[in-house]
Structure formats: C-alpha cells, structure tokens
Amino acid sequence: MHPGVEQKLLKLTNAQVCEHLHTIQSLWSGYGTIARYQLDGSSANTVVVKHIAATPSTQHPRGWNTSTSHNRKVRSYEVETYWYKHWSKQCPKTARIPEHIGTFNEGDDIYLVLEDLNHSFPLRKQEVRLSEVKTCLDWLAHFHMNFMQHKPTGLWDIGTYWHLDTRPDEFELIENKELKAKARRIDEVLNNCKFKTLVHGDAKLANFCFSTDGQHVAAVDFQYVGGGCGMKDVAYFLGSCLSSEECEVYEAELLDHYFHTLHQAYLQQDHDFEFEALTTEWRQMYTIAWTDFTRFLLGWMPTHQKLHGYSLRLMNQVLASL
Known about the structure:
Blueprint: H1 3-13, E1 17-26, E2 32-40, E3 46-52, H2 67-87, E4 100-106, E5 109-115, H3 130-146, H4 168-172, H5 177-191, E6 197-199, E7 208-210, E8 217-219, E9 226-228, H6 231-241, H7 244-267, H8 275-300, H9 309-321
Antiparallel strand pairs: 1-2, 2-3, 3-5, 4-5, 6-9, 7-8
Helix pairs in contact: 3-6, 3-7, 5-8, 6-8, 8-9
C-alpha cells in the first residue's frame, strides 16, 4: 500500500497497524480493486477498501472501450461515493448495506472504506432456493418504500446501468427493428411513471450477501443507484437468478411476495398516496422494465443466456402493446 494511503486509512479507522489480507476482486474493466484489510487497535477487526482508479482502461471483457463507456464508469463511481457519504445512513435496517466508515483521496484515486459484511453476511451465492429469492425481494421492497418519492440528488437522475441514454453504442447494434423503433417509447413509459423511488440499479444476485441461515441479506455496489420505478430492480434481479422455466412458474408468486412486503413497509411509514395506486402502476411496469433490460442485452451481447424464452415472450408482448 502507498504510504500516504496507509496513513489515511490508519487515521480514519483509529488503527495502529493495517495489513492487506487479500484482494476480494478487481473492479469491472480494471478500474481498481476491492480488498480486505486487518486492523490492529481499531474498533473494527477488518474493513473492506474499494480503491477506484478513475483512469481510462483497455481491459473491458466485451471490448466496449469507448469514451462513453469510460465517462459512464467515472460518473458511476462519483455517484457511489456520494451515495455512501450522503444517502447511506437513511437505509433502514430491513435494507441492510455496509456502514460507510469514510472516504479519502490519494491523487486522483478514491478510497471507500466500508464495514466488512463478512462477519454477519458471510455467504455469496450463485444458486438460491425460492425462499432466498424472496429474502432478496424483501430487501428490495423495503429499500424502495423507504426512498419512495425522494429526489435522487447527487445520484443518477435515472438509475440502472442499462439506461437508454447512457448506452448509445449498444443501441446502435440492436438488430430487432421493432424494438429499436420503440425503445424510446419504452424508456418514456418507465421514466414517466407516477410512483418513483430510488433503485439500486445493479440488483443482481452477486451483489447480495447472505447470512449463514439464508434468511437475511445485505446489498453492495451502489454505482448505479438513482431515480426510477422499482420494477427495474425486481425484473433485473429475477433475471439474474432464475431460468426461463423458473420465471414462468414462479412469476406470480414472487411478484405477490414483493408487493406483500412492499405493503408491510408502506404501513410502517406515513405516505400521502394510496398503496393500491402504486401496486396497479408497478405491476403494469413489470413487463416493460424487463423489456427495457432485454433491449440493452440485445445490443450488448445478443447471445447472452438471459435472452431466453421468457424474456423474449415478454418483449414481444410489450412491443405488440405499444
């Protein structure tokens, strides 16, 4: 570790000694690393440090090395930093995230110092039981209701990493002419919905950390948090962990579960709108949100495994309705 970085980390954590234990992962396209550090003399035994090296990269796994791609990534890290500094403490206990210990800069690089979730949420899952899918939906429901009708100050005006305006390169490569012609309309329907909240923006299974019993989760990675319809997160999450057949079989049960938890969260707060109106609108947005993500995939990677029978059926259904 650079001596200047080490001194800032020690000061921030009130530790006497810090030791790099291991790198958890590299950031997408080589923009930095996430690492775990052991602390001596601090109230925390370990912390997770996200080192963001905001310099142009040539390591994109899909070859999307454009100025648009670079500027989007740099903006995403600015948003995440702002989220942890100014928004994260507003998250309820039912939508657990790592505590923000502090942020500092070393030159142009950014260092986010976060609670190590491994102590309470040690499991990362590639496959989940239906009950664990519901646990993640519970997190999303509480997150969405908590931030209902909040203006996304300092965040993305429109959350999610696949938002149409931020993906012009991928849009140009879409071969489905009807989808391409109606993509803007799909975007408008989603973004003009009455009920908006903050969306996580990248709520895939890999960004949820599970407790040992699988009954509780915490979420990480807030680069694309911003305003929008909660169905964007729900559709994207289900697509991240269910097969086409599972989506068909469990769609109604899982959506009902999400809205049940959303209603429980609604009853615990003081809102000036009728829950039934929210439910009606967002249920109608589900297929549109799924189609919006399908639009991105068809430009970004048309051979992606998520482009299966279920997602294409919903897309054709939406296109026929517009």
